[in-house]
């Protein structure tokens, strides 16, 4: 994200929350779960991570809204802190089926996520041709290499 004339933010916005319900009940392959993170329109498709393993456990689907009423008795949507998540096992199964059916395929020169994350340098070209370089990407639990 850029503000007029300078870089404002180069990292994603992360929120912390808890799984508040597993639907229909706690089991190996639930059909959904809810988290206590308020979301707004446009956040659908955001990954939900396990903070211990950094594994994607699901994808944000929708936020639960309540109904507010004005003094004139007009109703409006009121966001809550409950959001619905599609478990990762659904998405993995769908992608595997699409790939098997030949509907989708990665380009021949595409790198895997592991290849991207293990590379020593990632370059992101920002507006006006300026570059921001990340020389090394390490998970939080690993110390950076000393120079």
Q: Count the strands?
A: 9
Helix/sheet category:
mainly beta
CATH superfamily grouping: Trypsin-like serine proteases
Q: Give the N-to-C terminal Cα separation.
A: 30 Å
What is the rounded Rg?
A: 20 Å
Question: How is the largest sheet built, in terms of strand order?
Answer: 3-4-7-6-5
Strand content: 25-35%
Q: Tell me about the largest β-sheet.
A: 5 strands, antiparallel
Instruction: Determine and state the CATH class.
Output: Mainly Beta
Description:
Helix content is about 15%, strand content about 35%. The chain has about 150 residues and is mostly beta strands. The protein has a single domain, classed as Thrombin, subunit H (Beta Barrel). The strands form 3 sheets. Strands 3-4-7-6-5 form a 5-stranded antiparallel sheet. A hairpin with an 8-residue loop joins strand 3 and strand 4 (about 30-35).
List keywords for this structure.
two-stranded antiparallel ribbon, 147 residues, Thrombin, subunit H, extended, 2 helices, 5-stranded antiparallel sheet, single chain
Q: Layout of helices and strands, plus pairs?
A:
Layout lengths: L1 E2 L2 E2 L11 E5 L8 E4 L11 E3 L6 E14 L5 E13 H13 L12 H6 L3 E4 L5 E4 L13
Antiparallel strand pairs: 1-2, 3-4, 4-7, 5-6, 6-7, 8-9
Could you give a short description of this structure?
The chain is mainly beta and 147 residues long. The chain is built from 2 helices and 9 strands, in the order E-E-E-E-E-E-E-H-H-E-E. It has a 5-stranded antiparallel beta sheet with strand order 3-4-7-6-5.
């Amino acid at each position: 994200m850029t503000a007029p004339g300078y870089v404002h933010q180069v990292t994603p916005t992360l929120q912390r929350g808890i799984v508040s319900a597993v639907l229909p009940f706690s089991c190996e392959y639930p059909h959904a779960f809810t988290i206590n993170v308020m979301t707004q329109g446009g956040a659908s498709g955001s990954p939900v991570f396990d903070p211990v393993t950094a594994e994607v456990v699901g994808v944000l689907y929708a936020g639960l809204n309540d109904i507010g009423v004005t003094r004139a008795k007009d109703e409006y949507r009121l966001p809550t802190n409950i959001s619905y998540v599609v478990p990762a096992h659904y998405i993995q199964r769908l992608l595997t089926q699409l790939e098997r059916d030949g509907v989708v395929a990665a380009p021949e020169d595409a790198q895997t996520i592991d290849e991207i994350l293990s590379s020593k340098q990632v370059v992101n070209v920002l507006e006006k041709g300026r570059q921001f370089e990340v020389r090394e990407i390490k998970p939080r639990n690993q110390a950076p290499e000393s120079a």
